[in-house]
Amino acid sequence: MQEAGQGARRDAGRGAHEGGCTCGDCPHGARAGHRRAVAEFLSKRDEFASGRGLPAAVAHSFGASRQWVSDELTQSADLVAERGRAEGDVWLGRVWRRTVAAVWGAVGVLLLAQALTAIGAGWSSARTAGLLAALVVAVLLTGASWFHRARGGVLAPVIGEDNRLSTSRAVAAAWVLFVVYAVLLLAGRLAGASSHTERDALIAGLELARGAGIVTVLAVVCAIAVLVRRVVGLRVLGQRLQKVRADRPRAADLLTDDSGRGSFADTQYVVLGAVALVFAAVRLARRPEQLPDLPWGLAVVVLVSAATYVAGKYAEGGRPVILSVVRAREAGDLDAPIRTGDDIEIRGAGFVPPGAQTADRLSRMVVRIGPVHVHVPLVPVPGGFSNPSDAVLTVPVPADVEPGRVEVQVVTAAGVETNSVGIDVTE
């Protein structure tokens, strides 16, 4: 089996540059290589799930065939993960151009909107100041994108340590950019003001009494971005939260949890923050001589949304736990104590961390039975795996386990250890 696995790896290595290069310098080849690896893995998984593809040397033994299938799928899943990471690195290296194009596209949209609204009303100094402020912000973002082009350009500050877009950082960054634009607009108008009265009015527009609402919202969302990073980091180190790294950031990360399911806390924070930001932008367009006076009612709504988001961060996650360990019994098998070579069924919760449903993550799960570390075998079924799952794991008791009282403990793909449960192993 080892020779067969080594031969498969050699074939995969030789085929890495066939039909499209998969290295980091060829983005189209990296994407094609990842898709090809995924297709090969799915085909192999479904073939094994239907009982085909087993070599005759292991087909007679259930335990040997299960282990052989698990090893083959693990090797194929590792190749898929490697290609996925390569594609993610290439995507990050290329997306900075798209972000720059989006920034300058927004400037073009602003210019078009000002030109259309100026028909009949005429061009004003406020429109010129707004356009110049947008140009300054666009130049700054372009420069930042160039320096962080290997990490996603403009997206670099809002990408978390788990390689996902951070909701708290994205909301805070949006408010920071808006306030910077508003202050630059007022600075441009102040530079072009010709009378003392106009200059005094513009300076008065920056007073705290005029923009207390928006300043409060800005302070809160920025504080939450820092607080959430600290909270998540401490909970991960304290093994109260499981985090696995994503291949690359996705826009859906702003509205979902790590497993890809929609998150109420994240969604309401983004939606209500965006609504308040649109209102502030309209207020700035209508009264460009002062900071947008965000009404306190709307500011309080944003603060309540922020508090809900933080509470959701505290409530999510939890440490994996073993509830019980029993001997796995096949149909027709007699009831008996646990012996070496038997399968045990570990029941609990939280064995599969959010975002770790892929085969390469599942194959990293380990069960410690006494002094022996047993890798959880992958058992394929059409469309997925029956083992391991988030609530049940099935592993064999190896022959190296000494009879007597031994402790069972699960180590998840995120590296978090569960509690220990004792079982009795007989001869």
From TrEMBL:
GO terms, biological process: carbohydrate metabolic process
Highest taxon in the source lineage: Bacteria
Keyword line: Membrane, Transmembrane, Transmembrane helix
InterPro entries on file: Ig-like_fold
Name recorded for this polypeptide: Membrane protein
TM annotation in the entry: 101-123, 129-149, 170-191, 211-232
The keyword Transmembrane belongs to this UniProt entry's keyword annotation: yes
